């Protein structure tokens, strides 16, 4: 069955990036559907995520929520950077965009059911942030992971950094951010970024078995365990959060951010100046 979601907004040529929600055998699937852009998340898609997660969590037949990208080419390649010049350039636009992204992240992280990111091929930037919001991450052996913020000149919000540090530790988190390099599936498994690497051949079947194993377990036990795990990792914001937020905003206000967007669009290496 398909859950009821907000009406997606088609582009000028009728192409419609959207979030889909379906239920099958106790698994609630949230599918990121933008295959033309490797399942990059548009602003409209960020805004659809809370309703999709609420619909799946509210379905009594769902025991586990799985997030995937449409097709085999990508899980989520990140935010749709082609929109940034139009929708994420002024301080007001950055604030509105971040609000939508934050609400989407909170909807995933706040889901009371077990959540699993089912990853194929590319899991980058906002896509990795989406995966990190899940309790578990499984990936095919061809998957690649990265947070390329330092190549684009943009700021990465504190909650996302904290989630990464809680998962892989400060040293690995620092390398992920400072180098902005790609990690293959084995590297991601080694540092704790993902839980399982599954073979490319037969991936869908292996993922289905993994999810069925979770769906068959006692719902109340998993609910209690999730609450306890959340409690164990919860922490107040640091005393210097305002200073951190100011440093992040300075990234979006900088010439380097404009240069990072231009370089991405022109497919060249950025020339950052630190201003």
UniProtKB/TrEMBL annotation:
The keyword Lyase applies. InterPro entries: ClpP/crotonase-like_dom_sf, Enoyl-CoA_hydra/iso, Enoyl-CoA_hydra_C. Pfam families: ECH_1. One of its GO terms (molecular function) is lyase activity. GO terms for biological process: fatty acid beta-oxidation. The keyword Lyase applies. Keywords: Lyase. Belongs to the enoyl-CoA hydratase/isomerase family. NCBIfam families: PRK06127.1. This is Enoyl-CoA hydratase/carnithine racemase. It comes from Albimonas pacifica.
